[in-house]
Structure formats: structure tokens, C-alpha cells
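User: Teach me something about this protein's shape.
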Amino acid sequence: MNGKLFAVALISLSLVSLACTSRIVYEATAEPAAVGTVNINRASVAELEALPGVGQKTAEAIVEHREQHGAFRRVEHLMLVQGVSESRFVEIRPLISH
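Assistant: First, the predicted structure itself:
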């Protein structure tokens, strides 16, 4: 009986350990803002235009979207703006934060 109880306790401890490890890995891989990135919630049209593939019209559309709908909660929401395709987003992703 003690062997079974020990095995159950060991399995429970392993599951708790795995859950804690998963949480730590998830938090560690959350997207930190890199130094020198353009904050899409604060950047001016001129700052947004400095991003590769973002022209004046797209930069203005980003600012307009932000003013109408509020701050971007995720950088991926930038693709909701006309002129920001998935391929353009992938290109500028390392250069932006929110």
C-alpha cells in the first residue's frame, strides 16, 4: 500500500512540476519589447514610415485606426489595418512593439 501511495504522490508531484515548468517557459517566451523598436501605439506617422514597406498612406492608416479603435492590444492586430498584409507584418514584426 505504501508503494502505491508513493507512486501516486510521485506522479502528482511530477504533474505539478510539469505545469510549473510549462508556465515558466510560456512566460519566458512572451514577446518582450526589444530595445529600439517602434511602438505602434505611440509612434507618429513619420516614425511608422521609417519601417520597411510602410509608406505615408499606410502609416496614416495605422494612426487613424489607433485613433478610431484605441490602442493595439497585440502587435498582430496591426494586420487589421488596410495596407498591412501578413507578409509585410512578418517583415516588420521584429521592429515593432505595442
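Now, about its shape. DSSP finds four helices and two strands in the chain. Confidence is low (pLDDT under 50) at residues 5-32. If you'd like, I can walk through any region in more detail.
User: That's plenty for now, thanks!
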